[in-house]
Amino acid sequence: QVQLVESGGGLVQAGGSSRLSCAVSGHSFNSFTMGWFRQGSGKEREFVAIIRWTAESAVYGDSVKGRFTISKDNAKNTVYLQMNSLKSEDTAVYYCAMKYGSTSLSAGAYLYWGQGTQVTVSS
């Protein structure tokens, strides 16, 4: 059974940085995609970034491009989201997610989800 456990987040000042981690376990093979999504209060879940487990290239949402970086440590089975130059509009619950097969930017395509971690950016 695939499990995703997030850590990090919390309260950070605007302009500051924070790093989220997502530990992955229970996956049966390595052809999968890891993604970060977020959901602000009263908003729909929004794509943030994705990365293939066996590749280095990543894709980012327009609202975070140039400020956020997704990375992975295959040996630790962990995916990270480094968030820099944070803005108040980045305040949301952040979720990591996983899907087997082809990549997707759509939250609906992801079967496995972490519990979510709150990031609050104070201005």
Topology:
Blueprint: E1 3-7, E2 10-13, E3 18-25, E4 32-39, E5 46-52, E6 58-60, E7 68-73, E8 78-83, E9 92-100, E10 112-113, E11 117-122
Parallel strand pairs: 2-11
Antiparallel strand pairs: 1-3, 3-8, 4-5, 4-9, 5-6, 7-8, 9-10, 9-11
Describe the structure.
By secondary structure, the protein is mainly beta. It contains no helices and eleven strands. The strands form two sheets. Strands 2, 4, 5, 6, 9, 10 and 11 form a seven-stranded mixed beta sheet that branches. A four-stranded antiparallel beta sheet has the order 1-3-8-7, with no helix packed on it. It is globular and about 45 Å long. The relative contact order is 0.32.
Summarize the structure.
With 123 residues, this protein is mainly β.
Give the % helix: under 10%
Overall geometry: globular
Query: Rg from C-alpha positions?
Result: 13 Å
| Number of β-strand runs | 11
Largest sheet entry: 7 strands, mixed
Regarding quaternary structure, how should these chains be classified? single chain
Question: How big a fraction of the residues is strand?
Answer: over 45%
Query: What is the terminal separation in angstroms?
Result: 40 Å
The H-and-E topology, N to C, reads as EEEEEEEEEEE
Structural classification? mainly beta
Poorly predicted regions: none
Task: Look at the structure and give the mean pLDDT.
Answer: 95
How many DSSP H or I helices? 0
